[in-house]
Design goal:
3-stranded antiparallel sheet; 8 helices; alpha+beta; 190 residues
Length: 190
């Protein structure tokens, strides 16, 4: 009963601003809020934590990257497909047309999001950091046959997208990569 009464006390204190301004929304989401709080979805969305995970996506270089513009980080090693508990990842490896030897890039990459249980094993075990977990959870549709099987073009997102949804984790990974490259350069000099 106290929560119910506190809801109206806060409503009178904030007035219309509680439901119409960003400050009111932040106040309703804060731990210090009092009373009953309802998020007015879809107009308002709760902020997801940085470690929130939903459907995986493939990381690619930026289009203006000087070394490899738009290149996919995936080498089609298949580790993600092997560790996936529901087996929802399919990779088609590509071969060089002249030599027939394998090329370290997938020809096709599919994830069935109806089967995916969002465990994050694919992202955790990827040795190249090519798979990350997305924050986009609004993916419903009426077509179960084609809309829920994501192919390579739909899965690819630039590294800048990853840096915006998970800035501290992306910075940690960048620093770890730079330290690893520096160690390799020192070992090469010896």
């Amino acid at each position: 009963l106290r929560h119910f009464v506190n809801t109206y006390v806060d409503d009178f204190k904030w007035g219309v601003r509680r439901y119409t301004t960003d400050e009111g929304f932040e106040a309703r989401q804060s731990p210090g809020t009092r009373g009953l709080v309802t998020i007015q979805y879809p107009e308002e969305k709760m902020a997801v934590p940085e470690r929130f995970r939903f459907v995986p996506f493939l990381v690619t270089n930026e289009l203006d990257d000087p070394e490899a513009p738009g290149e996919n980080w995936c080498t089609s090693c298949g580790i993600c497909a092997k560790v996936c508990p529901p087996q929802c990842i399919w990779i088609v490896r590509s071969n060089d047309p002249e030599t027939g030897r394998p090329v370290p890039a997938p020809a096709a990459f599919f994830i069935d999001i109806d089967i995916c249980m969002n465990c994050g094993f694919c992202a955790e075990y990827c040795p190249f950091d090519a798979i990350k977990m997305d924050h986009n959870y609004e993916m419903s549709s009426y077509d179960r046959t084609t809309a829920h099987i994501h192919d390579k073009p739909r899965l690819q997102k630039p590294v800048s997208y990853w840096q915006t949804i998970a800035p501290s984790r992306a910075e940690q990974e960048r620093l770890a990569r730079e330290a690893k490259e520096a160690a390799k350069a020192i070992a090469k000099k010896r």
